[in-house]
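Continuing the series of single-chain predictions for the mutant panel. This is the parent chain; the variants come on the following pages.
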Amino acid sequence: MALVTDKFRIYAAESFRDTLLTENKVYMFVGRAKSWGSTDVPPSGEPIDSFEYYRQTYRDSVAFKRVDISDTALVIPRVDWIDPSQTTGGTGRVYSMYKPDYAPTKTTANGSSRLFDSNFYVMNSDFNVYKCLYNGQSPEYPRGRPSLVEPTGTSTTIIETSDSPGNYSYRWKYMYTIDADNILKFVTTEFIPVLTNTLVRDAASGGSIDTVVIENAGAGYSNGTYTNVPIKGDYEINGGTQGLCTVTVVSGAISNVTITQAGTKYSFATIDVATIPNIGNGTGASLDVVLPPNGGHGSDAVRELGGYRLMFTSKLETTSAFVDFPNDLTYRRVGLILNPYDYNTTTVSSQNTRSAVKAMIFPQSGTGSPSGTFTPGETITQATTNAKGFVVSYNSTTKVLKYYQDETDGVTSGNVVAFSGSNQITSSVNAITATPNTSFGTSSVPVSQITIGVSVYELGLAFVGGYANEEVEINSGEVLYIDNRNPITRSADQNEEIKVVIEF
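Parent structure:
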């Protein structure tokens, strides 16, 4: 048997994110302006992980938006602390406690055999994140008891809540607080970001013991409180210090174990009840000494909480800087592409936005100006050349029409033919006609803006002879992620925020 560990998954997520600083460029794209069909619902069984599907995805992509490292975060599933009044019967929710040795034979409070599949941490109402170090577990309650008091505060020491005075208290480790910027960018109904609090990290102590769980209270022991009970293990050979605890016996059974000296540098630890002086000849007691992660609780939030998911977020705006994302666009696909090239080059793109469609521009007035308004979703033809294309967007102010040509909506007599020259364009729906303005831009002086009255409009593309090519080289780079969606229609007063989470 072999195992790819969670540590490898975390390393892969961190490493990929770090490459965005220097080596790699990732773009989030939108596409699929064409309807899915009569119901306009994504087809079942798609997307498909195949070379052909990647090419198809590229052919009907519309625009790319670069994702910087500041637009990414390692994230974990969101687990909110829930007020008991919001739970069934008002009993409260039981949270799993941190233990380093969960397995199929030793499961968490929610029945998971993996720590990272359990609810062993929470986010409170102040967006503070806490790790549960003790959940009231006892021989009578082997999976723990409900958390009745919300953890609060930012102390670097263990935070204890008196959930049931005289019976049990939850013990929490404050990890970090999610600030306002990160809340807006990375907190969703499903995920929260993993952050580092330097004070918590610096206060962590490797191999220190914070928790002992009574797995079996035993019977027949002498009642009393036994102090300075040594915690045995390998601290000495590791250059650490010994931990001590206090053991309380009531009615012949162990009722409580309290750490009085945490010690340092344990990699394994035990408490031998039988060797405690004067405790008597009882039998059956079993104490589980819970060791912290390497470096101690709070030393590395990403590894302690399982940050092997990477969130990419991108905000699509309606400003002039986002002219590559038309306001009249309806898109049905989002995705991520690694290291696409600029058009007709092998240079990795680095601009903030890139257009993935072609365009043509018509005269503002007079001969050749549009006889009406082209409609996104229809096809256009050029009878003189036999060219055919699919209308992605049309700006009635600038008279720019954006289109793509694919194997369905760009083929005439088996071939895809380029639009060219001052030849009339005709639309398929209302027979709108127009003629490209071939005097707009030259090969030596491409034009990417137009002045109408006193206003200057950015076009996003460089026009030569009335036509503009896309800004990305088709099929360049690597398609990392594809998500087929129900239609999303943009508008001039709408911004969209897209969040993609990839699990490594």
